[in-house]
Every structure is written in structure tokens, then in C-alpha cells.
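ok trying this again, last paste got cut off
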Amino acid sequence: MSQVPCYTIINSPDLEVPNEMQLKQDLEKGDTNVKIETLKKVIKLLLNGERYPGLIMTIIRFVLPVQNHTIKKLLLIFWEIVPKTSSDGKLLQEMILVCDAYRKDLQHPNEFLRGSTLRFLCKLKEPELLEPLMPAIRACLDHRHSYVRRNAVLAIFTIYKNFDWLVPDGPELIATFLDTQQDMSCKRNAFLMLLHADQERALNYLASCIDQVQSFGDILQLVIVELIYKVCHANPAERSRFIRCIYNLLNSSSNAVRYESAGTLITLSLAPTAIKAAAGCYIELIVKESDNNVKLIVLDRLIAMKENENMEKVMQDLVMDVLRVLAAPDIEVRRKTLALAMDLVYSRNINEMVQVLQKEVAKTHNVEHEDTGKYRQLLVRTLHTCSIKFPDVASNVIPVLVEFLSDTNELAAVDVLIFIREAIQKFPALRALIIKHLIEAFPQIKSSKIHRAAVWILGEYVEGAQILEVIAAIQQTLGEIPMVDAEQRRLAGDQTEEQLQQQQQQGSAAGGDASNATSTTQTNTNSSNKVTSDGTYATQSAYSLAPVAKKEKRPPLRQYLMDGDFFIGAALSATLTKLALRYAELQPDARTQNRLTTQVMLIMSSILHLGKSGFPTKPITYDDSDRIMICLRTLSERTPEAVAVFMHDCRDALGKMLDAQHEEDQRMQKEKQRAAAKVQPDSPVLFAQLSNGRDNQLGENVFESSLNQALAGTKNAQLSDMSSPNNKLNKVTQLTGFSDPVYAEAYVNVNQYDIVLDVLIVNQTNDTLQNCTLELATLGDLKLVERPHPVVLAPHDFCNIKANVKVSSTENGIIFGNIVYDTALNTNVVVLNTIHIDIMDYIIPASCTDTEFRQMWQDFEWENKVTVNTSFTDLHEYLKHLLKSTNMKCLTPEKALSGQCGFMAANMYAKSIFGENALANLSIEKPVDDPDSKVTGHIRIRAKSQGMALSLGDKISSSQKQSVQAA
């Protein structure tokens, strides 16, 4: 037995169940307002599962004759949801009176009443009620008002679809109606019926007016696109007949029609002109549409087109058109656009793309917006990728990117340095150009982190005469040496060398400007009254000039050291050591070598002295002090091992790291390409129901693949996987025992934002169960949308009841409840087993850069620390188990994890379908000399929300318990 059909769902809070006699009295004797409120109350009670069979006659006698429009609308809902059959399945006698009332409403002079009644008839499933109304419904096709006519067509369409014997001449009737209509909504509904009921008549009509399609309304054009799609796929010979019509609809005034037409065009034809026309239409939609969600949806279609090999080659010429989308302000749209353009660009148009990106970089300089920093970072990364992929453009890109080093946005500057580090290693011919621009930008850098990385690059790759330039630039940004003496003079108020130099530079300009004297002084006037000898009053004034303290501005590197950041001092010492050693190899004169070496050693010892002097806000750390001492010892002793480390090993380590990154990128690229394997001539035919089909969003089964996406959410599941019995059986939860009078089990289908429970209920008794109701409640961020309707179960009968639960965040949830049913003697309750909604249904693996990971780790405030308790004895096996059970992705490279050292640290990352981020840091160990010992350690989880962190921790703990029990 199927559940009672219901189309109108009204959410209502828990109601107090009133007395039936009171309801009858209000419906009989109340005024119009009382009747309206009572009728609303009755409708809510019926939706909540209450039964009032005695009210039907009262409503027919006292409410049905009322001509109030509000009551008429409420009655339509009431008759839709009220049970219309008796317990034996026969139609209630009272419904004949209702049928007569609606026959009168179908002939009512008010067009709204006629139209709403016709809409109500679309929801009726009882042919006995519909049969006497058919003449009145047919008569409504000739009504003067379009609202009545279009609803009459829909009513005939629904009745023909469900009970074709009630209107056997339906297609012919509607085809005649379509020829005489001018209203677009009526034509659309009539054409829609012909599309589903009689395609031949629909094609004949379309062929007769194919030249006028562009003048039709958008609602009719959408149905025409659907018809062409269906007909052309069923009969490919018809493509040439209708493809011109699709081309014309690409220029429709409606964006929805253009979108559907473009999608249909590329499924009908893979000709280059068709692909260009469809892609151009998509790009125009993105540029002109203001809604960001629409932009993202259409961008996804373009990305799907790019993944098709036949279309990708054609789309490569549209890169410049794609870049027009960068005018959109949304950062996510820009990110997808740049990724798409980067995948499509090739050697012919790379220069044009770089010019566009350079203009975009220039636009961001004077614009302050919350996403400007992120957009600059995106542009830097894209230009970085362009330069590595096409080395010829690197020389044009480097000057633009180096300007970012002085930017206040540290993220963009870090990405620039990552690019420079890779470019200077991979392109030796560009080293001189890169070093030149880096030296020029060095004094303008504003961040300690950027200065530190820039110093390392300069120390590693500077050669020849540029060595002295770099040391001069470092001395300029450090200030006077020794630093402690300079700071003492500054504290005492004496002029330092820097101040003297500034005065000499500004002397000529400041000498003639008299106002400068007043700008550096403050005039205080103190006046007092005095009495002279003759008794009169006189005023005496005194003027004093007080100097105004100027805020001392130190050179950038000196300022970092004064703020207690001596890590930059250690990095500076290593760079100066490399420069001195390299200069010693180039300069044969020992005196010149020693002069430079002593100059460098003076800078390092000055940094050490400053760190221990007490002037900085924080003293130098022992680690930084030891690093500087190692550099001093290396320069003084120059042992071959230490010199080799400074001269060669650092650069070799960078080369190995870049090679490892390149290999990882290549491996990821190959994994993506595996899915797009070419089809061989002898490949077997694939049937979606019998085998796993490939994702083919733009192929022949575009409707099926859109259904696949709706079913599978964000996961890459196939339609055949969703319909596979094995997949379904894994998600079945047993709710009651086999010996209970009612057996129940539920299939839990988790979509993106809702959960559908398909509950099978089996009556295992010899009695008829009346009012068998599934009562559910939720715990967590879950919300039950509606109460399931009660059903009647015959002996040993079964039925399926569906319930919808809304999900609002990524947390573990629990659904619990019971089954209540009535027998001839009493009411019984069967308590159900709880259904646990797994957080893994919402989490998908994701990747991010190390910088982004650290930033999120710093920003997220909720942390959950889980102690490792497992039976695993291998570190790598435990990591694999953890990744599998949490759906997270390991960000630590495989090479960093390889080998057996008794310790492992790894970073993991995942995203939820709600856009929440989850970070995890794994730190585990085991004794190397004891192979049978178990893995120990802990996992730290960080998330923005408390529920995410706790739920992920619970999942890890439960998976550990299962592994221990299995062992």
C-alpha cells in the first residue's frame, strides 16, 4: 500500500488537539473569520496525522456553500489532503456532493475560482471524481481569460497522463487548441502536453512555425528546446532539420533559453562552429549575468566542455574571451576563470594572456577591497604558472611580479618569491635579470618574512660583480655598524651617521626654508598680570620654544632586529657567509678578500652584540646565536665540509625539492588524465544499468548525468553506482528486531543538504494494523521536514514510508523514534534503533598550499586532540587507515613520509559540502627496535566550528575502536 498522496506541505508547530465537537460548532455557527481560522486548524491537524471523518459532512453543509475566496482556497487544500476513500478502498458517498460543488465552481463567472479549481483537479487521483467533471473542464478551454485556459490545458494533460480513457481524444483536442491560441502561457502548456503525449503532432506544429520561434515567449522556447533534444537523440536523422533552430535560439532574449540551447547544441553536434557558438554563448551569459551563482554554474559547464578532448582544441582560441569574465568582482568566479584559462592557453596566445593579466595586476594597485589581496595572489600564481609552462614569457613577467615584493599584502609577496626561487633555479639565462630587479626592490620590502627569503635567494645565486652590490644593499638596509654604538648615540640624543647623511641631502632644501624652524618647535606663551608702581595693571608675557620629539625611523633590517626578530639576522649571516666565500673564489687578491670578510664578520658580530645588549624588545635566541657563531667559525676556519655546505648543498637541496614538487604535479596530472581514456574501435558498448559509466556531462546522456549529479551531490558517483544494489545495501540500517510484531529497516540516502529515509515496514502479525505511524525525532543540526502519514497494514503486508530530514551543518546527528499502531484491542508502540548520520557523508578530500594550511591553523579557534589507541604496528598503515576512515587528504609529500625512522608527522585537510574546512596534524611514533610494538601518539584537529572538530574527533575515535576490536 502506498502512502497517501499529498502535494501541499504546510509546516506548523506542535498544536494542541482540540475537541471534535468544538470544531463542528465553530464550522456550523461561527462567522466567516471563525470558519477560516477553524478550517486552517483542521488542515494542520490532518497534516499532522489526525483523523476527523465526522467533519466532512459538516464542512459540506456549512462551509462549502460560502462564497468567500479565502475559504474557497482553503477548501481546495482540505479536499486535497482529506482521505477520500473508506477503509475498504471505496469512494466516500460524501465526495459526490463535493464533486457537484466543484462542477459549479468550474462554471463560476469568476476566472480566479475557475483557474484555481482546475489546478486542484490536477492533484486528484480518483477517476470517479474526475469523470463527471470532464465536460466542464473541456468547456474551460474556450474561456475568454488565459488564466482559465492554461489551467484547463494542464488539467487535461494530467488527467490524460493518469487516466487516458477519460479523455481519449486529448492530443487531438489540444493540437486544435494550440493552432488557435495567441497567449504564450497557453501555447506553452499545450505544446508541453503534445511533447509528452504525442510527439508527432508537436513536431508538425514546430515545423509549421519554425521560422517564428525567435518571436515566441521564453517559456515556450524552453519547451521547444526540450522537444528538439529528445527528438534528435531518438532519431539522429532529424538533427539537420532542427539544428538551425537551436542556433537561432542562442540569440534569444532569455538567458535561460540561451543556456539550455547551448547545452543542447553541443550534445547534437561536435562541429567546431557549434562548439564555438555554444562556448561564446556561455561566456556572454557569465559576463552579462549579475548573479554569482549563475556565473559559477555556467563556468562549470565551460570547464566540463574543456574536459572533452574534441572540444578543448576548439576552445583554445577562446582564451581571450574567457578572460573577460575577470571583470566579475567575486573571487571564486575569478579563481575558476583563471584556472580554465590556464588549462586552455597555448603558445600562440600566451603573450596576449600575459598582457591581460599584467593589466589586471595594475588595476589592483589602487583598489582596496576585502578580496583584493586574494585576487593579487591569484594573479601572481597564474603568472607564475605561465612562466614555468612557457619560459619565453618569463622575462616579461618578472619585472611585473617583483613590484609585488614591496606590497603590504604579504601573501602575494610570498608567492612572488616562490616564483622567483623556482625561475632562478630552472632558467639560468634569466638569473642576471632577476638579481638586478631583486636588488632594486630590496630596500622597499616591508615584511621580515619577505626580506628573509629575498636575502636567501640573493646569497645563493649572486655571482661576479653583483656580490658587492648585494652587500652594499644589505648594509644600506641595516644602517650604521656597529649597531650597539649607533643605538647608544641615538638614545643619548647625539646624531647618528644616518641622520648626518640625511641632513647633508636635505641641507640645500632646508637652508632657505624659514618655516622649517617653526615646524620643529612649539611656541608656549605664559602670561601673568603685574602691578606697577603707580598702581596700574600691566601684562607681562614670556615666550619659550620647546623642541618636539621626532619619531626615529630606522632602516628596515635594523627595525626587525630591534623588534626582537633575530631569525632574519641568522638568515642574513648565512647569506653574507656565502657571498664572502664566493667572492674569495673570484678575487685572487688576499687583502681584498680579507677586507670583505672582516666587513661581513663585523656585521655578524654586531648582530650578536645587539641581541645581547638589551636594546631590542626581545633578546636573541640561543638557536639564532648558534647559527651566527657557525657562520663566523666557517669564515675564520674555512673547513672543506662547512664550505661545501654553504657553497653547494643548499642549492642542491632546493633543486631536489623543486624536482619532487614537479613529480608530484605530474603524478596528479596523470591521475586526472586516466579518467579521460580514449575509446578504442573494439571497445564494448556500455549500458548504464549494467556497468560503471564514465562521467560524461556533455555527451549523449546529458539528462542522465544531470540526474546523476543531483543524486550524488558533490561526490564523483555514477548513476549506475547509485542504482547498484551493493551501494544501497551498505546504507541499510535495521530499526527493529526480527521477532518484533512490526519489522522495520531504513535506507539512508544522504544528499547535499537533506537526508531521505526510505523506511520499509513489515506487518509480521495476523492482524490488520490501523493508523500505523512512523514517529521520528532528531538530535543535532537535523530538522524533520514533515511527519510521515499513517498507513493501514493488512496481515503480513508491507509498505515503504519516506521521511525528509534537513541538514544545516557538518556534525554527527542522530535520528530516533518509534512505530505506533492500533489493533482491535489496544495501541502498541515499537521503539526503533537509532540511526547515526555519519559526518563522512558531508566531507570530501581537498588540497591547499602549506602557507594556506598554516594560516588556517592559526586562525581556527576550535581544537580537538585525539590520542592514538590502535592495534596497528606500522606507521604508514595507520596513516592509510586514518585517511580512509576520515575522507581527508594527506598534504605531506610521499617522499617526506617514506622510510622508517620510528616517527611520522603529517598534515591532512578536507572540506565539507557546506564550505567548512577541517585540518588535522598527525604525530605518531613507535620504537624502531621493537617491530611488534603498537603505534602511539596523537592527532590534533582544528576547525572553525566546534561541531566539526568534535564530530571528526568522534569519527577517528570510533574507527580506532573498530580496528582494535577487529584485531
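PB: full thing came through this time. The first helix runs from residue 20 to 29.
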